[in-house]
Write a structure and sequence with these properties.
alpha/beta; Rossmann fold; 10 helices; 51% helix; 14% strand; binds adenosine monophosphate
Length: 227
């Protein structure tokens, strides 16, 4: 019985963030993870860490990331499968940036016991011109991964991370040519996941073109109102 109860609790805490690059997945997933005490699995951050550490995975992934393409499915499925298998994910996890292809969604089904019906899926939608504005102004702290925006969320001192004083950088893949490829990859390979999850999970389409606190309030409300 205890196991059954544990299982039900764990299912309600499996959350997936879908949405194009720049929609605010990282911001919302990070906050939800902090407030609810759930592990956040951000595949983009994990890959950037692997590159920074010079691991074999990082070396394989780097060329795809820099030009704005998707890293091959098998690498992602292996990386996420290993992460989800750890003890701290037993009571749930928030997926931020995974799955991004149908093959990855099927991989997720396999690694979590064959059904995504217990997942809560938030698809954050933002108009294309706003995505371009967000991505082009985005700056990243290479040390702690905090993100800023030149206009809407600038650091206290220009070009410097508020948390640890590191010099902020623009992600290679936030530059114009890479952004164009990321958006077309999203349209071609990730968008079909909307129908996939709509048919299988508790699915919510979220208007991400609103202040971040308003979006967050809606997510919290939806999680609280659900089973
Ligand atoms: P993000 O920080 O989520 O925008 O991810 C940055 C980059 O990492 C993406 O543009 C891809 O190159 C790669 N990446 C992250 N997650 C995935 C994924 N699930 N599948 C393939 N590539 C990914």
């Amino acid at each position: 019985m205890a196991d059954v109860e544990h299982g039900v609790a764990a299912l309600a805490r499996r959350i997936v963030f879908l949405g194009p690059p720049g929609a605010g997945k990282g911001t919302q997933a990070g906050r939800l993870a902090a407030v609810r005490g759930i592990v956040r699995i951000a595949t983009g951050d994990m890959l950037r860490d692997a590159i920074a550490q010079g691991t074999a995975l990082g070396k394989q992934a780097a060329p795809f990331i820099d030009r704005g393409g998707l890293v091959p499915d098998e690498l992602l499925i292996g990386m996420v499968g290993e992460r989800i298998g750890r003890e701290d994910c037993r009571d749930g996890f928030i997926l931020d940036g995974f799955p991004r292809t149908l093959r990855q969604a099927e991989g997720l089904e396999q690694m979590t016991g064959g059904t995504p019906s217990g997942f809560v899926v938030f698809d954050i939608e933002v108009p294309r011109d706003e995505l371009l504005r967000r991505l082009s102004g985005r700056r990243l702290c290479p040390t702690c991964q905090a993100t800023y925006h030149l206009q809407t969320n600038p650091p206290a001192t220009v070009g410097v991370c508020d948390r640890d004083g590191s010099a902020l950088v623009q992600r290679e893949d936030d530059k114009e040519t890479a952004v164009a490829l990321r958006l077309s990859e999203y349209d071609a390979r990730t968008k079909p996941l909307i129908e996939y999850f709509r048919a299988r999970s508790r699915f919510h389409s979220i208007d991400g073109y609103r202040p971040r606190d308003v979006v967050f309030g809606e997510l919290q409300g939806l999680l609280e109102s659900g089973p």
